[in-house]
Write a structure and sequence with these properties.
Low-confidence stretches: 380-472
Mean pLDDT: 78
Structural class: alpha/beta
CATH class of the largest domain: Alpha Beta
Helix content: 25-40%
Distance between the termini: 57 Å
Number of strands: 14
Number of domains: 2
Radius of gyration: 22 Å
Bound molecules: adenosine monophosphate
CATH superfamily of the largest domain: P-loop containing nucleotide triphosphate hydrolases
Number of helices: 16
Length: about 475
């Protein structure tokens, strides 16, 4: 299928061609007709599925008719990065339409935003905090908004934006089209959706299972050996995947920062993306990673939300996440748009209950690999204690000691995500977002919740585990 049946305005079709899109993604295929009809939509989809264009294109189509110079579409985003990316998508896809999009978020001077709003625009992509500030100052009014998009609603909820969203909703016209996108459907979002959406069309695109294009493997290791093992894996990855990018996850922002420094010290082009960076530092980190100048980005879960970086061949869990959902989010940063990717996890004995939880989510065992030189670090009982099923591993077994060959030689265009909330004063690393409690959205084999994992294992998040230091 092509975009032709949607009968977009020729100026929008020009944007689609310029973006290089020839076939709608599944979420676009299902969502665009409903939005064009003016229906409310509940979209259950992760980033990387093409959901931004799924709402941006029909919104542009709607805005082609009607008044210019007044705010008609409002997109609420949890993070600055996602807001920027959405704005860029509107700008690119709508390049020939003359429609104007603006971003509104905190952490940067409000002046350019105020000027832009005063000059007039049809689309605003905003994080809730700064938008409320500007509403309070009378700089922006929402009474002309025709379409509201709540993007990554579960993330906005996790970040504590729900009260702000409710205040924004109170300032919007009751007669409007509302589109809500969320990767998961915790009870609070379900409630919000049933309150806000009128007879919505629900579209669900593979949510809770890590996408099929990712090969998953784990490397048993002692916590003191993690850094050495990571260095060995990165060197192997560089030999085999060349310019492929690597996204590494740690549990806390301090660990992200320290690990990036340790990698850089060891001659690897690495940087960190975590909540302690200023906006310009974040931008520099992202620019470096996007351009390929920095091959390795070390990030926390929150920081990694909302970034869009292509050609990530490997996601490495330096620290395993606390929930299987978070594992899905992390590993979904590679293998985007049906290209292949590799997800590797360094696993200590403490992580075994979470590995079982993830394996249940995947519906099969994760391939255990050993790395030459690290055999003694692997827990001897790992094979018995961690392999829950006799089903085949997710990816074909490789000979012991083999390096982690990338799953594909094709680059993996797609996106990752990152970013902290605009007024993020909460300590990032030492708290779990509410995501850990939220139920999985998909009905497919119900993924176990964090509390399941905790019950099974008495799993402690190991907050005090020291960052391994490099020996020698
Ligand atoms: P999203 O899920 O909106 O973050 O999009 C993920 C990536 O897919 C972005 O880099 C988009 O530019 C890209 N994309 C979106 N729609 C299409 C399409 N129909 N064909 C190819 N790439 C697309």
């Amino acid at each position: 299928m092509t975009f032709e049946p949607f009968a977009f305005h020729p100026q929008i079709n020009a944007g689609i061609s310029a973006a290089g899109y020839s076939t709608p993604t599944p979420i676009q295929h299902k969502t665009i007709p409903a939005i064009l009809e003016g229906r409310d939509v509940l979209g259950l989809a992760q980033t990387g599925t093409g959901k931004t264009a799924a709402f941006a294109l029909p919104i542009l189509q709607r805005l082609m008719n009607g008044p210019r110079g007044r705010l008609r579409a409002l997109i609420l985003s949890p993070t600055r990065e996602l807001a920027e990316q959405t704005h860029v998508a509107f700008t690119h896809l709508g390049r020939q339409t003359g429609l104007r999009s603006l971003t509104v978020y905190g952490g940067v001077s409000a002046m350019p935003q105020v000027k832009g709003l005063r000059a007039g625009c049809e689309i605003v992509v905003a994080c809730p905090g700064r938008l409320l500030d500007l509403m309070g100052q009378g700089v922006v009014k929402l009474d002309t908004v025709e379409v509201l998009v709540l993007d990554e609603a579960d993330q906005m909820f996790d970040m504590g934006f729900l009260p702000s969203i409710r205040r924004i909703l109170a300032a919007l016209p009751r007669e409007r089209q509302t589109l809500l996108f969320s990767a998961t459907m915790p009870a609070e979002i379900r409630e919000l959706a049933s309150e806000l959406l009128r007879r919505p069309v629900t579209v669900e695109i593979g949510i809770t299972r890590p996408i099929e294009t990712i090969s998953h493997a784990i490397y048993p290791v002692d916590s003191t050996q993690k850094l050495e093992m990571l260095l060995a894996l990165l060197r192997a990855q560089q030999r085999e995947a060349g310019s492929g990018k690597v996204l590494i996850f740690t549990r806390t922002k301090h660990r992200a920062k320290k690990l990036a420094q340790q990698l850089a010290h060891s001659g690897i082009a690495a940087t960190s993306l975590q909540g302690n960076l200023s906006q310009s530092q974040r931008q520099a980190a992202m620019d470096g990673f996007r351009s390929g100048r920095v091959r390795v980005l070390v990030a926390t879960d929150i920081a990694a939300r909302g970034i869009d970086v292509s050609q990530i061949t490997h996601v490495i869990n330096f620290d395993l996440p606390d929930t299987s959902e978070a594992y899905t989010h992390r590993t979904g940063r590679t293998g985007r748009m049906e290209n292949l990717g590799t997800a590797l996890s360094l696993v200590t004995p403490d992580d075994q209950p979470m590995i079982r939880t993830i394996e249940r989510l995947l519906g099969r065992g994760l391939e255990r690999r050993k790395l030459a030189g690290f055999e003694h670090t692997a827990q001897p009982a790992a094979a018995e204690t961690m392999a829950p099923t006799n089903r085949p591993p997710v990816s074909p077994a490789r000979p012991q000691g083999s390096s982690n060959r990338p799953a594909t030689s094709r680059p993996a265009p797609g996106r990752t995500s990152a970013g902290d909330r605009p007024h993020d004063n909460r300590p990032q690393g030492n708290q779990r977002p509410a995501a850990s409690q939220r139920p999985a959205a998909s009905q497919r084999p119900a993924p176990p919740t964090r509390s399941d994992a905790a019950r099974q294992s008495n799993h402690s998040p190991r907050r005090d585990e020291p960052m391994p230091t490099r020996r020698g």
